[in-house]
Design a protein that fits this description.
With 728 residues, the protein is of the alpha/beta class. It folds into four domains: 8-57 and 189-232 and 278-436, Glycosidases (TIM Barrel, Alpha-Beta Barrel); 73-158, Sandwich (Immunoglobulin-like); 447-669, Rossmann fold, CATH 3.40.50; 674-725, Golgi alpha-mannosidase II (Immunoglobulin-like, Sandwich), CATH 2.60.40. The chain is built from 19 helices and 35 strands. The chain has an eight-stranded parallel β-barrel. A hairpin with a 2-residue loop joins strand 28 (627-635) and strand 29 (638-643). Helix 7 packs parallel to helix 10 (281-307) and helix 15 (475-484) crosses helix 19 (650-663). The longest helix has 27 residues, at 281-307.
């Protein structure tokens, strides 16, 4: 394939013009961008077709922010739990454990927006039972119940913008650039901010005619981050809405919805409405309320950009709260593009699948920051390879339109081997587009549905805490969507409400329910609704497939089963209530689902406890230390597969693919466009009569590709790939 150019955005900065010219030519870049903390050099528009510039609607004008301190952004926090050691008054320092450069208490109408709760009983302490000392930042509970725990849910002011604070601390700006100000954010709901935001953007557009694409980073409300007293991350929730609050917003909500929200609706006993918790009706209302508001205001800014003849792009991160890209209000914003960071195959699909925009773009890792680009253990080439390998298989299934990198290009230029590597990656990315001719590879003849509380709203976003970071408690479940992101299946995310209202969509052939008991992903109390259980049972029995992972459909009711679909899946969780019952599992040594597993099955952290077969008809395919790890079952005309956990690796990915074909009754597809080596995957483009084979490993491999009754023997370099025209 000859060298091509385009589809690449590279970061630039001032003071290194000659090196930037050389890098733009090497990467084939057709767009450049600045980053937080860098500025566009004068040569920017000479280099490429498009110039991007970051724009911060909710921060950046420090003079205005300090002149209008009443416009500061608020965030709901919960104090430490404090035990009353006797009948004496309890004094709680509400900011104890928090970073005081980030927060200060907000004393606006404390009797309305603060709340003291006895956590031992769950009772709210009446307002006349506690008092606030603004000078000391403390709450005093006058007559506590001895040996009960107490907390304070309170509004805080954000003194330092979250993103800039993170970048400031991570990059050591305090030492390298002590003159840099610590930017204070402002809330677009507050008096005068919206007018200022419009005027500031109008002026900025006039002053920057060289900018073709305004990259909003992002709009108004940051996801939840709280730092601890040592200036390190204390709480991070990439989906958190607790920093989208203000007295003005809560009052407006009450006027529209007719009921009051409490502090507890946001602090949620310290869970802060984590996406793992089943959302309350109040929290669902808040998401919709803020999403409508953000969409309306964001559209106003986007319209101004369009009127100025520029494109509007949104960064999927930072201040993205209220702009859920799979939510009902997102399309109304009218954005041209969305760009986001790819930390995995799933997060790559999260970006590439976004509807309602003209193009999508991904920022590959590593960011050009000193935490990676250093001579003391940093490995930028390794980071680049890992990022590309994890994302590439997803890009093949659903290509992004563009790619790029971010950060301080001067750091990257100190590592020539890194520049060589990303030059090759940029070309490989373009080759996917050129050689596929815009055609998507062929998928299975049925759609896979991921069933949880969130459904479509959180497409490709299940079991995520902070963006694509590994967590011990979640990796056994994240492997499901990480595998699916690069497999030949159309995937749709379904909510329990959708199933109850409309039934299972006709194109769905297999449903997957994966998660720990009680979470939004397994379903929790959603399974108390007998209609849901009835619907899924009837659907599977009619000839469809169900896959459960971990503790699927788990709910503790009075029916005796913990897994509410234990009859369908053929397994249940042992919770030491049925130890008197002897078990004689039907162990099966060979099955099409587990044909690629050699040795022990890797279920990660497993299901959190023992799992047993509920029937001698359940075929147990993997059994370790007295617990079921993999099992199959037939239910009516349908089929089911159970996995105790499914972390992402090549074996588990292929095993999930096999399980999907088997439960859907399409075993004949297992050997159609199939590769023999587990580290390889194939994508078939019937319209182009060619296929693409990927080597997802860092080793040289040989693999056999099977398709259309033919075989091809191929040797692939480490991380290599090969296009094959089948008619030549």
């Amino acid at each position: 394939m000859p060298r091509t150019t385009g589809r690449v955005t590279m970061p630039i900065q001032e003071g290194i013009d000659d090196q930037i010219r050389e890098l733009a030519q090497a990467l084939g870049a057709d767009a450049v961008r600045n980053s937080d903390g860098t500025w566009l050099p004068e040569i920017a528009s000479e280099l490429v077709d498009k110039v991007y510039s970051t724009y911060f609607p909710a921060r950046g004008d420090q003079e205005w922010a300090l002149a209008h301190p009443e416009t500061v952004v608020n965030q709901y926090l919960m104090s430490k739990r404090v035990t009353a050691m006797g009948p004496e008054p309890v004094v709680i320092d509400v900011l104890d454990g928090y970073f005081r450069e980030q927060f200060r208490p907000c004393y606006v109408r404390v009797e309305r927006f603060w709340e003291v709760i006895d956590r031992t009983t769950g009772d709210v302490v009446p307002v006349d039972g506690w008092s606030v000392d603004p000078k000391e930042g403390t709450v005093t509970i006058s007559e506590p119940v001895p040996w009960h725990e107490y907390t304070v849910g309170f509004l805080a002011d954000q003194l330092w913008d979250t993103t800039q604070m993170y970048n400031y601390i991570t990059n050591g700006w305090g030492a390298t650039d002590p003159s840099r100000v610590k930017e204070q954010p402002y809330d677009v709901r507050k008096n005068g901010v919206w007018e200022h935001a419009q005027e500031a953007l109008k002026q900025w557009l006039a002053e920057h005619p060289e900018v073709d694409v305004v990259r909003f980073t992002t709009f108004f409300y940051h996801f939840t981050i709280a730092f601890n007293s040592a200036g390190r991350e204390k709480f991070v929730d990439w989906f958190g809405y607790s920093a989208s609050v203000s007295p003005e917003a809560i009052d407006a909500f009450e006027e529209e919805y007719g009921y009051q929200l409490r502090a507890e609706d946001f602090v949620d006993a310290g869970y802060y409405n984590s996406p793992f918790t089943v959302p309350t009706p109040h929290f669902r209302d808040w998401i919709d309320f803020q999403s409508r508001f953000v969409a309306k205001k964001a559209k106003g800014l986007v319209d101004m950009v369009h009127e100025a003849g520029r494109e509007a792009m949104m960064f999927l991160g930072d201040n993205w709260i209220g702009t859920e890209p799979y939510g009902p209000h997102f399309p109304s914003i009218g954005l041209d593009a969305v760009v986001g960071s790819a930390g995995s195959a799933a997060t790559t699909r999260m970006i590439s699948d976004i509807p309602g925009v003209k193009y999508t773009e991904v920022r590959f890792l590593p960011y050009f920051f000193p935490d990676v680009f250093n001579q003391h253990g940093g490995d930028p080439v390794g980071e680049a390879n890992r990022s590309w390998l994890t994302s590439r298989r997803a890009i093949v299934r659903r290509p992004l339109d563009r790619m790029g990198y971010g950060g301080y290009v001067s750091l990257a230029l100190e590592f020539p081997d890194f520049i060589d590597r990303i030059t090759a990656i940029c070309q490989e990315f373009r080759d996917i587009h050129e050689l596929s001719g815009g055609e998507l590879p062929q998928n299975a003849p049925f759609t896979v549905g991921i069933l949880n509380v969130w459904g479509r709203l959180r497409t490709w976003q299940t079991h995520m805490v902070a963006h694509a970071l590994w967590y011990k408690a979640t990796y056994s479940y994240v492997g499901v969507i990480e595998s699916l992101a690069g497999l030949p299946f159309e995937v749709r995310f379904l909510s329990f409400d959708e199933i109850l209202e409309n039934g299972v969509p006709e194109d769905i052939g297999v449903i997957i329910n994966a998660g720990a008991a009680g979470t939004a992903f397994s379903g929790g109390k959603a399974w108390a609704d007998r209609r849901l259980v009835e619907t899924i049972r009837e659907w599977v029995a009619a000839g469809h497939g169900l896959i459960g992972v971990g503790e699927p459909a788990a709910y503790d009711n009075d029916g005796g089963s913990f897994i509410q679909l234990s009859d369908v899946l053929g397994v249940d969780r042992e919770r030491q209530m049925t130890l008197s019952t002897d078990r004689y599992p039907n162990l099966v040594s060979s099955h099409v689902v587990t044909a690629d597993i050699e040795g022990a099955f890797d279920d990660g952290e497993g299901a959190g406890g023992d799992v047993f077969a509920t029937s001698p008809d359940t075929q147990v395919l993997s059994y370790e230390n007295g617990t079921v790890q993999v099992a199959t079952n037939k239910f009516g005309k349908g089929r089911a597969v159970y996995f105790s956990g499914l972390p992402y690796n090549a074996v588990n990915c292929r095993t999930l693919q096999r399980a999907l074909y088997w439960v859907a009754g399409h075993e004949e597809l297992l050997e159609e466009w199939h590769t023999s080596h587990l580290d390889t995957e194939v994508a078939w483009y019937p319209g182009k009569r060619r296929f693409l084979v990927l080597n997802n490993s860092g080793e040289e491999v040989s693999t056999t590709v099977v398709g259309e009754g033919r075989q091809w023997e191929l040797a692939l370099e480490p991380m290599g790939w090969q296009w094959v025209d089948v008619d030549e």
